[in-house]
Design goal:
Elements: E1 2-3, E2 6-10, E3 23-27, E4 45-46, H1 49-59
Antiparallel strand pairs: 1-2, 2-3, 3-4
C-alpha cells in the first residue's frame, strides 16, 4: 500500500523463520524504513498488514494547501 509519503513493504528477511509475516513502513522521500522510537535504531515493524495501514493513515502528513 502506498499513500503519499509512506509505503508498506514486506520484510522477508525479518521473519527469522517465523510463520507470520512482518511489515515495515518505508518513507518514500528518503527510501529508508521508518525507525522505532529512540533509543532503538531498529525499523518500526508490524505483524499485521492491517495495523501497518492504521499507522500509515494516522501518521501521513496533511495534504499541502492548494
Amino acid at each position: 500500500m502506498t499513500t503519499g509519503r509512506y509505503a508498506i513493504i514486506p520484510a522477508d528477511d525479518a521473519c527469522d523463520g517465523s510463520s507470520y509475516p512482518v511489515w515495515f513502513v518505508r518513507d518514500r522521500r528518503t527510501g529508508e524504513p521508518v525507525r522505532a522510537l529512540p533509543p532503538s535504531d531498529a525499523p518500526l515493524r508490524f505483524y499485521s498488514y492491517a495495523l501497518a495501514q492504521v499507522w500509515v493513515l494516522r501518521n501521513a502528513p496533511a495534504p499541502e494547501p492548494a
